[in-house]
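Tutorial handout. Part one gives the primary structure; part two gives the three-dimensional structure as tokens.
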Amino acid sequence: MQAIPYGRQHITDEDIAAVVATLKSDFLTQGPQIEAFEKAFAQVIGSKYAVALSNGTAALHLCAMALGVNENSKVITTPITFAASANCVRYCGGEVVFADIDPKTALIDIDSVRKLLEASPKGTYHGMIPVDFAGYPVNLEEFRKLADEYGLFIIEDSCHSPGGYFTDSQGVKQNCGNGNFADLAIFSFHPVKHIACGEGGMITTNNEVLYKKLLQLRTHGITKDPALMHENHGGWYYEMQTLGYNYRLPDMNAALGLSQLQRFDEGLARRRFIAKKYDEAFVGTNIKTISAPENFGHGYHLYVIQVENRKELYDFLRTKNIFSQVHYIPVHTLPYYQSMGYKKGAYPNAEEYYANCLSIPMYPSMTDQEQEYVIEQILSFCQS
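Part two.
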């Protein structure tokens, strides 16, 4: 059996043709493919606006900037996420505060967040960054109520969850990143994600003021809009009105993303089919899995199992050419955050989850034969 990774991009002849066509065009960056990708992505997600960026981390950084995070800000997030979800606060000089996870979902626990807020005067905290971990959607309606009570912004980290949704209290399906509850949401187009751009990211929002601010921050804080400029010397003139960054996405990447978006529904359906087969295979075993309720749509960027002898299973699978991965090392245990005073043992649910979690192969181009082989090897180890 050839190597089976935990995730893999799927590039078709149509994808290649789309990139080649852009390479032969007049624009390689900030051309027509950017706007086309933004509009198509916003339509799929259900948001009013979308801003394409160089990667998901850049998207997080600009969200924090646009929402005014600074050295006086305290922002809550989960320790079970990629470090960028917390780092974006640090980029702006703010303080990261972690809340433990719900062991039933591995998502940030709203009760843990509430306890943090209740323990301090109102105004102590400025925002929260819930993460749709592995593709399991956070119920943002509940978090929005809490955020409004304490005057907090919400950045939804939806990197794992395009196509995911939860059902709100009115029975309405709410797509991850649609902007109905979060002020801003972010997505990543890293190769193993649902849509691959090589590198790339997107911010979605329904807030026009934030949308326009993000467009300016994406390009050095510069505007060429005569309606916004203090002076106008001519057609060449521009103004840098704030400190921004070069976080632009090249047109070649956008062309690839736009092409991949055409197969989005197909890829999502395949992920859910693979997850269902895993669910069925592990029933009645000592392998713990996490599945969303029927009225939630799991995006299944990852399929995570939990076993007591995780390290041994990880090593065993490698001998069988199966390359699993661990998502994630709790952020508060990483040396940078340890040096800032965060302590191991502070978030026991997150640390227990980390001790047992393993992401096994999950990607749309995975064949039935490959999945059957993965299941066979995992069961043979766990039942031995």
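Part three, for discussion. The chain has a mean pLDDT of 97. The first strand starts at residue 4 and ends at 5.
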